[in-house]
């Protein structure tokens, strides 16, 4: 479904973005291709996208269908994180996992009735 044809069915945030850039496209003093590019960038930040024709007319407004095979890929695509940020998150995740394992082991030693299941 092209949500440009059914804009009222899109989330309010998307409607606001489209309306904002629609006003800019009507301004003859602006570079229409740059406005379309900026529109796509703004939409992608909220999980949506569109295409635009050579005459700078946007079409095919839709949700981004993101298929991520790893958490790092999700963080990069959907959260806009760079590689060093993803690595820092993964390292912190490993640290927290190690800390949790130590705490579980301590609980198991100190309490014979403690049962941990994943």
Number of helices: 4
Q: Would you identify the regions where 5 or more consecutive residues have pLDDT less than 50? A: none
Strand content bin: 5-15%
Helix content: 55-70%
Instruction: Note the run of SSEs as H and E.
Output: HHEEHH
Mean pLDDT: 84
Give the biggest sheet: 2 strands, antiparallel
State the total count of DSSP E strands.
Answer: 2
> What class do helices, strands and sheet pairing give?
mainly alpha
Apparent shape: elongated
User: What is the C-alpha radius of gyration, as a whole number of Å?
Assistant: 23 Å
The CA-CA distance between the termini, in Å, is: 41 Å
Number of domains: 2
* Biggest sheet strand line-up: 1-2
Q: What key phrases describe this protein's structure?
A:
118 residues; mainly alpha; 4 helices
Write a structural description:
With 118 residues, the chain is mainly alpha-helical. The chain folds into 2 domains: 7-63; 71-110. The chain is 55% helix and 9% strand. The chain is built from 4 helices and 2 strands. The chain has helices spanning 12-25, 32-45, 71-79, 83-110, and strands at 48-52, 58-63. Strands 1-2 form a two-stranded antiparallel ribbon. A hairpin with a 5-residue loop joins strand 1 and strand 2 (58-63). The model has no long low-confidence stretch (mean pLDDT 84).
Describe this structure in a few short sentences.
This protein has 118 residues and is mainly α. Helix content is 55%, strand content 9%. The protein has two domains: 7-63; 71-110.
């Amino acid at each position: 479904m092209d949500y440009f044809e059914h804009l009222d069915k899109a989330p309010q945030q998307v409607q606001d973005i489209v309306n904002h850039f629609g006003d800019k496209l009507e301004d003859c003093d602006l570079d229409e291709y740059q406005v379309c590019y900026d529109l796509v960038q703004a939409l992608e930040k909220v999980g949506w996208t569109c295409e635009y024709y050579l005459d700078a007319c946007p079409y095919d407004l839709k949700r981004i269908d993101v298929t991520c095979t790893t958490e790092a890929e999700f963080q990069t695509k959907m959260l806009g994180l760079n590689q060093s940020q993803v690595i820092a998150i993964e390292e912190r995740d490993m640290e927290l996992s190690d800390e949790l394992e130590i705490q579980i082991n301590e609980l198991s030693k100190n309490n014979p009735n403690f049962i941990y299941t994943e």
